[in-house]
């Protein structure tokens, strides 16, 4: 059973740390805001002074920070992960970052002969807390197999997408279609209400057929605001922007319109609301 380090103990990172601890792993934690470490330390985690120290002490290192800027700050420099990592370590970027940054990071690790995976997650807060996430992986499939048992401490499924950078690309595709579903439900509810239909009946049936899981989630949260939130408007706006960067000149009008809608909500100071609240703004 390998030791792990969690760099960034927000909603997802703290859930991962707790589940690794429950399964008997030695867990090291680092966070920019030190007060967030206290609950994990009380459960048995060990705080480290820097991402570099985490990479020295742990066999598997997870970057679960918020965006490209925060990720770069924990990987690069004299106190970064790369300064402390050796060739036997498994280095994993688990946040949702841009494909450009992941490609650069993968190249650096390759040059240093370090094992690197992009491994964003899906499952949200509940998945992180219950150890039931799905890991979306890019990197060496052969080396991935050597840590399957360790990853099963935090995930119900490990989905392999191919070479480095493939996992983050799929995550951006996934977040795009999920956000489109959420906004589409909002418009369907408006049309149903204008047509004189019972709003609850419309929502109940759309969330079963043909909407599926995402529509069900959006309808549930439309009726009762989730507390705590699962995923914020601030972060889905960031992810959609990364998806737009990935698309470049590819015409994706739905992505453009949904991004515009979330960006407008963010500018109106709704960033800390759940992403499904877009239908009430």
Keyword list:
single chain, NAD, six-stranded parallel β-sheet, 51% helix, oxidoreductase, alpha/beta, NAD(P)-bd_dom_sf, N-(1-d-carboxylethyl)-l-norvaline Dehydrogenase, domain 2, Rossmann fold, 9 strands, 2 domains, oxidoreductase activity, 281 residues, three-stranded mixed β-sheet, 14 helices
Short description:
The protein has helices at residues 11-22, 38-42, 51-57, 68-75, 81-84, 99-111, 124-130, 141-145, 148-151, 166-194, 199-206, 213-223, 233-247, 253-267; strands at residues 4-7, 27-30, 46-47, 60-63, 90-93, 115-118, 121-122, 133-138, 155-162.
Note down, in words, how this protein is organized.
With 281 residues, the chain is of the alpha/beta class. The chain folds into two domains: 4-163, NAD(P)-binding Rossmann-like Domain (Rossmann fold, 3-Layer(aba) Sandwich), CATH 3.40.50.720; 170-280, N-(1-d-carboxylethyl)-l-norvaline Dehydrogenase, domain 2. Helices cover 51% and strands 14% of the residues. The protein has 14 helices and nine strands. The protein has helices spanning 11-22, 38-42, 51-57, 68-75, 81-84, 99-111, 124-130, 141-145, 148-151, 166-194, 199-206, 213-223, 233-247, 253-267, and strands at 4-7, 27-30, 46-47, 60-63, 90-93, 115-118, 121-122, 133-138, 155-162. The strands form two sheets. A six-stranded parallel sheet has the order 3-2-1-4-5-6, sandwiched between helices. A three-stranded mixed sheet has the order 7-8-9. The protein starts with a strand and ends in a 14-residue tail after the last helix. Residues 165-279 form the 3-hydroxyisobutyrate dehydrogenase-like NAD-binding domain. This is 3-hydroxyisobutyrate dehydrogenase. Residues 4-162 form the 6-phosphogluconate dehydrogenase NADP-binding domain. The active site is at residue 171. It holds the Pfam family NAD_binding_11.
